[in-house]
Amino acid sequence: MPLRSAQRHNSNRARRATAEAERRAGADRRRSNAALAALAAILVVAAAVALSTSKTRATAATGAPVAGAAYSRALLAGIPQQGLVLGNPHAPVQMVEFADLQCPYCDEFATQTLPQLILRYVRSGRVSIEFRNLSFIGADSVRAARIAAGAAEQNKLWNFVDLMYLNQGTENSGYVTATYLHRLLATIPGLDVDRAERASRLPEAAAALESANQAAAASGVDATPSFLIGHTGDSLALFQPSSLTPRAFAGELNKLIGGQR
Description:
Elements: H1 2-54, H2 69-76, E1 81-82, E2 85-86, E3 93-100, H3 104-122, E4 127-134, H4 139-152, H5 157-166, H6 178-186, H7 193-200, H8 203-219, E5 226-231, E6 237-239, H9 246-258
Parallel strand pairs: 3-4
Antiparallel strand pairs: 1-2, 2-4, 3-5, 5-6
């Protein structure tokens, strides 16, 4: 009898401990979700302001203040970058984006869908995204892409790319001037602007563009934006979403994350 009583006591205590642990874990999840929701809400509002500014005539391309600088800093703050890659280098799932910095559809993805993917998948360490910069639209694309390569040399590529899309002008209108590019670079925290501009003029910058073109051809990419998705370390498959909405990407990413190794 005493043994059985002790067993019941210990069992009850274990159940109470388990319940308390689950309660605390649930509270932690709720706090984490609430914090993420709060950050998402802040970024949505900031994005709306940034976009309403950037899509008018007054953009950085026309001499106005750089649109979306504070929003972009908040979106990317604390997320690791290494060269072309945003996010945890050991993330179980990898996505590669092929894009031209003048492409309006790339702009749509970057400003409306990518922020939600970053908040949900990249910031949590489950997905990393690599940016491969194509520059087929025109001379403005090439100038911007070379500066992007200079920013990548300091692990600030994604900051520059985000600002380019938030301040995108009319294709091949000559808006991508040295002054415009300098102003974008100057808003990126921790970036040595002179060093990035020097790097953009080196052969390595041109080689980065050629490497992206070769990778696109090898993967069957013939439009921008295009995407490769798969498990990190495996061969990535060309992913053709039904639309450029977050929902169109979530299904594929969730499937891969659920089947991670």
